[in-house]
Design brief:
Number of strands: 9
Structural class: alpha/beta
Shape: elongated
Helix content: 55-70%
Number of helices: 16
Oligomer: single chain
Order of helices and strands: HEHEHEEHHEHEHEHHHHHEEHHHH
């Protein structure tokens, strides 16, 4: 791989990593209030404060905040604000609420452009429920429709689920985080490409999990930035570990890149580019896999975004389980697109690049595996356990523990070869 190719690849990876927070910052850069502050304003200044719910009518009827006015975002954005609506908004502090705090951004911006004192409620109904705590009366309470009486924004967690939450959060998570740090130390001075890639995968995993811990300990899981850094750490980790696996299998098993050794598939292919003027079957297979995965990786892209948020108590401590839409947008919208582009690019590199295309193609394909792997990981967990998120968190922590334990197990089993021991 040439220096120019390396530079372009690094720039693309940096841009892909920075693009989501930059876009979110510029899109959401408007005056906001927290749900707690909004509830306080509604209580202290009910006559001069208006809570405007901009969800669709059916969504509003299923569940809404007491005393809120419903005008859909579509009605406000697609049409000029009517004189009747202006009369309702004029002279009041208008607090805009939607499901996730995203649709309300555009509405808030439009109202402020019409000289209305509007503020977006951060996190939308997701965050509003989290700030409510236990069921209570008053302006902050929720109203549900008769057919949705089973909907509860507060749920009593069984004792075994409380134990599982504590075990995974305070036992398993610190354990595999420490183990990943130990692996970083063991791999620190290794210069073999596969071990260097594995080292960086552990570094980004360790950083991502610590961003998650900081978000929980200091921000009550409400910091979008720290959750993004947590997710980004997992994406990059999956990419590096995939590249380490590719390079290791090639080096120790297949021997495709080593011109002095026979390829492991020679018996199956019956002819090899190393000895004859023929095209490599493995490259053709890799091209097919790249193009196929570029399509398959788009599967989560068509999943429905869902609002899930409810409160419970874990050992008498109030805890909110939610998976905000802003997280889902990154997981099942952004990551599949990046993965699809990376897989397709890997295939095109193999098809068009004449001079040793495999090294660059492996890196690009591994980057696609990082995005696709994280996307499918969260997609499966969330849609499998959306009705009870304690199990989503439980299986996420267990899977990550098995992942780090598996890396440690393989390094131990092959320590003689990988670490140069007899």
């Amino acid at each position: 791989m040439t220096r120019v190719e390396k530079s372009i690849l690094i720039i693309l990876l940096i841009v892909a990593s920075l693009l989501p927070p930059i876009l979110f910052y510029f899109y959401s850069h408007i005056p906001t209030v927290s749900p707690g502050k909004a509830a306080e304003l509604l209580k202290e200044k009910p006559k001069s404060t208006l809570l405007l719910d901009v969800r669709k009518k059916r969504e509003f009827e299923l569940i809404h905040v007491y005393s809120s006015l419903n005008i859909s975002a579509e009605a406000l954005l697609n049409k000029k604000i009517s004189n009747d609506q202006m009369a309702v908004f004029q002279g009041k502090t208008v607090l805009i609420l939607c499901e996730s705090g995203l649709h309300s951004i555009a509405v808030t911006r439009k109202l402020r452009n019409n000289h209305i004192n509007a503020f977006n409620i951060e996190g939308g109904l997701h965050a509003w429920i989290a700030h409510m705590g236990k069921p209570s009366a008053g302006l902050t309470s929720l109203i549900t429709s008769p057919e949705e009486k089973e909907f509860l924004f507060y749920r009593v967690a069984p004792s075994h689920e409380q134990w599982l939450a504590v075990l995974t959060g305070y036992g398993i998570k610190p354990l595999y985080t420490i183990l990943s740090f130990i692996l970083i130390i063991l791999l620190w001075k290794k210069d073999e490409i596969e071990l260097v890639a594995l080292k960086y995968s552990m570094i980004f995993f360790f950083l991502g999990e610590n961003f998650c811990a900081v978000n929980y300990l200091f921000f009550k899981h409400e910091s979008y930035l720290f959750e993004y850094l947590h997710s980004l750490g997992m994406v990059i980790c999956f990419g590096f570990v995939t590249y380490a696996l590719f390079h290791g299998v090639d080096k120790y098993v297949i021997h495709y890149s080593d011109q002095s050794k026979k390829c492991a598939f020679l018996g199956l292919c019956a002819q090899c580019f190393k000895y004859e003027a023929v095209s490599c079957v493995l490259i053709k297979i890799f091209i097919f896999i790249s193009l196929a995965t570029s399509v398959i990786s788009l599967m989560p892209l068509f999943a429905e975004l869902k609002m899930i948020s409810y409160n419970t108590e874990i050992w008498r401590t109030l805890y909110n389980y939610s998976h905000p839409v802003i997280y889902q947008i990154f997981e099942v919208r952004y990551c599949p697109i990046i993965a699809g582009l990376a897989f397709a690019s890997a295939g095109l590199i193999l098809l068009t690049k004449k001079d040793d295309p495999l090294p660059l193609a492996k890196i690009v394909f591994a980057a696609g595996c990082g995005s696709a792997g994280f996307s499918f990981f969260r997609f499966i967990l969330f849609h499998g356990y959306q009705d009870n998120l304690v199990w989503m968190e439980f299986w996420e922590e267990i899977t990550e523990f098995i992942f780090i334990g598996g890396v440690a197990f393989l390094l131990w089993q092959f320590r003689g070869t990988l670490f140069g021991r007899t």
